[in-house]
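Morning. Coffee machine broken again, so started the prediction first thing and wrote up yesterday's gels while waiting. Chain of 131 residues, entered below exactly as on the submission form.
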Amino acid sequence: QLQLVESGGGLVQPGGSLRLSCAASGFRLDFYYIGWFRQAPGKEREGVSCISSADGSTNTADSVKGRFTISRDNAKSTVYLQLNSLKAEETDVYYCAAIGSWTLTAGHAMYQMTENEYAIWGQGTQVSVSA
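Came back before lunch.
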């Protein structure tokens, strides 16, 4: 069974930091592009940052650029999202998702952060930013 498991969420004060992890189970993560998305109650899910499988190219939303950093450790089959300078309005459930690098639309999925192109999803981890 192909699974992604997110961890690292929690409660943090505004301006604080967290590091989220996305671990693969049942498949090798290094053959997949990985995206991080987030969703608040009543709002649409939005793309945050994505990373390619081979050369580590990344794409990051303008709203978090300079504060959030995506990285991957293929030996550990894990992708990370470092969240710095968090804002209260970034209280969301954060999800990671995977699309196979062999998929014709993988590049599009990465650079457009189109969630419906990602085939495997984790259950999400809650990030709460509050004083």
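Residues 59 and 103 are 18 Å apart (CA to CA). Going to sketch it on the whiteboard this afternoon.
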